[in-house]
Amino acid sequence: MIVIAVAVVVTGAVALAQRTRGAQGSRGLKRRFGPEYERAVARHDGDSQAAERELAELVERHGGLRERELERTEAERYEARWAATQEHFVDAPREAVGEADRLLAELARARGFPDGERYEEQLSALAVHHATHVQGYRHLHHVARNGSDTEEMRTAMIEGRALFQELVGASSGRSAGRSTAGRS
């Protein structure tokens, strides 16, 4: 009898520990991925467990990536190029969006993310490390590849700029809001 009671208590404790660990893992993924978590759940038709498996796999694959710091002059060159791209938008929005897409891919590669030629892989790595702004890059890339009206292109540029500022600002140690790229 005592052995059976101990076995039931141990089994219950193990089940409770697994359930608690799963809930903490879920909260951790929600916190880490923010809007990307919700996007993954929607992509899996509401199946949060499938989304969590996918996101955990991304963390496993890209979580150990170490972002390379940019030299101050290198960050300033990227900021100047982004500012020129924004200015180019006035006269040639479609071309400017394409330039911004290429510039973000190049900047991400310079920071140590997979090459922009492997867009999906680069996007996955960025989602692990910059989840709050990766949707802006996704939107910018989509508009650059598929075209859109001027207002949609403007919105994509603004959303893409948030990731740009985070990548340049985080590397240069300056507040992204004070960078040249932050000016509209």
From TrEMBL:
Asked if the Swiss-Prot or TrEMBL record annotates the protein with the keyword Coiled coil, the reply is: yes
What keyword terms does UniProt attach to this protein?
Coiled coil
Which ranges form a coiled coil? 41-68
Name used for this protein in its record: Secreted protein
**Organism field:** Streptomyces zinciresistens K42
